[in-house]
Amino acid sequence: MKPIKVGLLGLGTVGTGVVRIVEGHQDDLSSQVGSPIRIEKVLVKDLQKARNVAIPEEMLTEEAGDIIHNPDIDVVVEVMGGIEPTKQYIMDALEQGKHVVTANKDLMAVHGREIMAKAKEKRCDVFYEASVAGGIPIIRTLMEGFSSDRIKKIMGIVNGTTNFILTKMSQEGAGYEEVLKEAQALGYAESDPTSDVEGLDAARKMAILATLGFHSDVALEDVDVRGISQIKKEDIAFAKRLGYEMKLLGIAERQDDQISVVVQPTMVSTSHPLAAVNGVFNAVYVYGEAVGETMFYGPGAGEMPTATSVVADLVAVIKNMKLGVNGQRALTPYKEKKLKTDDQIAYKNFILLHVEDKAGVLAQITQVFAEYEVSLDSVVQQPNPHNPDAEIIIVTHQASQASMKKVYKHFDNLDVIKSIKSAYRVEG
Ligand SMILES: NC(=O)c1ccc[n+]([C@@H]2O[C@H](COP(=O)([O-])OP(=O)(O)OC[C@H]3O[C@@H](n4cnc5c(N)ncnc54)[C@H](OP(=O)(O)O)[C@@H]3O)[C@@H](O)[C@H]2O)c1
């Protein structure tokens, strides 16, 4: 039977896994799609580089045109990463009528709309399952599994690097800088870790998940982002004492068609399933109006987990080719995007205050919360062993962010408060 021919852009971590799976699982794959799947050409940057997988020399090329303008190639699998020239290669491949599978969240979060429009015009498929939470099939789940439901909330631990760092800080009581160095030595964090630790990588993934879950065109700029680099080990110790784990959560919520998407360090109650997601693992919690609570857990990166998702997309593309229905998954978000304002975003807050240790302080502070109609869940005051001042830990009930901003502003003018040491969102 005529094989389906694939051009692979990139033979790094994920590309190597794709070759291994396509070769190693060939019997199962060809039985599922009704044709052999053959990797025809592989684009690399450096032909001389040693490869971790046996591949005939003549299959490698440094010329993208050998794939994009090769009339024999049906599907282009993009696992080279980056924005340019990758975007141009994908657009050119679509122009040539080739279907595309990509693992590139950077590209899909920023240029996904344009790429999907071109795919629709050319009646081509563009599948990108591996771009969010590597080995967890969350995109297919949102698009197909939950197509009958109305999703209200998506919470994700979608960055393995930061989850590794926070897990180590929590389990070993270690400081942020120390654990970051360990993560870099282990290859879990890049030498420039900014994109991971400042929450940008998670924000890109949350923009993709929110777009799919809420059928609205959520852009990266719509995501309010705060990373983990300012988290102190004391904050984590306080979280644990109160029954929470500190996690970098992406939280996308919808209420009456108004949505908010944030990425921020969050204290998650230990009774919530996300609190138990440790190390480099990822998890996505989805709350649907009809289904209720669900959670999807698994490896968020790595050669074989990521390649599993990439090749599953390849199978889906080929099945569509057999049925002659390519290009129909390029759904246009059909709901107008309405972002929540600060007075519509409400959640529980943890606040750690450094205060003067004298009579009446607590009363003054609780009076400020009362003035802005923020009700309190718990208040704990403790002496500070290192100086004559005290620390007050407050957990609020759900409070609008507009009210909380007024509270913080008022605190700035209250003499008894020396500083707001930490403030975090609380979930669960
Ligand atoms: N690694 C993961 O676990 C993971 C998980 C989810 C998603 N992803 C995504 O998957 C993609 C690939 O990641 P990766 O970790 O496999 O990357 P990688 O190990 O750095 O591999 C990149 C590959 O692309 C080739 N390449 C890069 N730029 C090129 C250019 N301008 N022209 C020709 N070839 C070029 C490189 O060639 P040489 O080998 O010759 O240098 C290399 O083979 C990225 O979009 C990433 O975000 C990765």
From TrEMBL:
<keyword id="KW-0560">Oxidoreductase</keyword>
<dbReference type="Pfam" id="PF01842">
    <property type="entry name" value="ACT"/>
</dbReference>
<comment type="pathway">
    <text>Amino-acid biosynthesis; L-methionine biosynthesis via de novo pathway; L-homoserine from L-aspartate: step 3/3.</text>
</comment>
<comment type="pathway">
    <text>Amino-acid biosynthesis; L-threonine biosynthesis; L-threonine from L-aspartate: step 3/5.</text>
</comment>
<dbReference type="InterPro" id="IPR019811">
    <property type="entry name" value="HDH_CS"/>
</dbReference>
<comment type="similarity">
    <text>Belongs to the homoserine dehydrogenase family.</text>
</comment>
<dbReference type="InterPro" id="IPR005106">
    <property type="entry name" value="Asp/hSer_DH_NAD-bd"/>
</dbReference>
<keyword id="KW-0521">NADP</keyword>
<keyword id="KW-0791">Threonine biosynthesis</keyword>
<dbReference type="InterPro" id="IPR036291">
    <property type="entry name" value="NAD(P)-bd_dom_sf"/>
</dbReference>
<dbReference type="InterPro" id="IPR002912">
    <property type="entry name" value="ACT_dom"/>
</dbReference>
<dbReference type="InterPro" id="IPR001342">
    <property type="entry name" value="HDH_cat"/>
</dbReference>
<feature type="domain" description="ACT">
    <location>
        <begin position="350"/>
        <end position="425"/>
    </location>
</feature>
<keyword id="KW-0028">Amino-acid biosynthesis</keyword>
<dbReference type="Pfam" id="PF03447">
    <property type="entry name" value="NAD_binding_3"/>
</dbReference>
<dbReference type="InterPro" id="IPR045865">
    <property type="entry name" value="ACT-like_dom_sf"/>
</dbReference>
<dbReference type="InterPro" id="IPR016204">
    <property type="entry name" value="HDH"/>
</dbReference>
<dbReference type="Pfam" id="PF00742">
    <property type="entry name" value="Homoserine_dh"/>
</dbReference>
<protein>
    <recommendedName>
        <fullName>Homoserine dehydrogenase</fullName>
        <ecNumber>1.1.1.3</ecNumber>
    </recommendedName>
</protein>
<keyword id="KW-0486">Methionine biosynthesis</keyword>
